[in-house]
Specification:
The protein is α+β, with helices and mostly antiparallel strands. Helix content is 27%, strand content 16%. The protein has 5 helices and 7 strands; from the N terminus they run βββββααααββα. It is globular. The structure holds zinc ion. The site of zinc ion has 9 residues, from helix 2.
Length: 177
């Protein structure tokens, strides 16, 4: 387990309490620590999720950011890019984060449930990386993992067409075929 200290910052979370075990059975117990989100919300967050970058903020900030209204990576950071483009890339990043972290997401089983992680510090780092990939500005292309068993991380991401993406998927997911 990674060492975690009070005052450490993970995305919008600041650690405000020491790690402790929590869970119904001895075997199922995970380490959690009390964290405060930028917005002031305090919540116990899984240490594993903090360290892997899969939890970067409270649920309320997550759903706010997923809406188009408050999207946009820090204002002015990419003044040369159209806002709609950044919103689309950011939306794809959030979708990936939700698929890997939100147990209630309908695709969780195929992502987080299989151990797939988003290995970026936070959504902004994720978006910044996506904006460096060829094809990010082509609305006909979709974000894809090169190795379908690999993580959302530098080196395993590309933009591709729906059909190429579905070839790379496991047979069950034939939605785009
Ligand atoms: Zn928050």
């Amino acid at each position: 387990m990674n060492k975690i200290n009070i005052g450490d910052i993970y995305g919008k979370w600041t650690v405000i309490g020491p790690p402790h075990r929590k869970g119904p059975t001895r075997a199922g117990r995970n380490h959690y620590c009390m964290c405060r989100c930028e917005c002031g919300t305090e919540k116990e967050v899984s240490v594993q999720h903090l360290c892997s970058g899969t939890s970067v903020q409270c649920r309320s900030c997550g759903s706010k950011n997923a809406g188009a209204a408050t999207m946009g990576i820090r204002h002015g950071e990419f003044p040369y890019l159209p806002k709609t483009l950044i919103e689309r890339v950011r939306g794809a990043a959030w979708n990936a984060i939700y698929r890997c972290t939100d147990h209630e997401n309908r695709k969780y089983q195929d992502y987080g449930g299989r151990g797939i992680e988003v290995r970026f510090l936070d959504v902004n780092e994720f978006v910044r990386h996506l904006l460096t990939l060829p094809g990010h500005d082509n609305p006909l292309l979709v974000l894809d993992r090169i190795d379908n068993n690999g993580h959302y991380e530098v080196g395993n991401l590309r933009y591709t067409t729906y059909s190429e993406s579905s070839c790379n998927s496991r047979p069950k997911r034939s939605r785009y075929a």
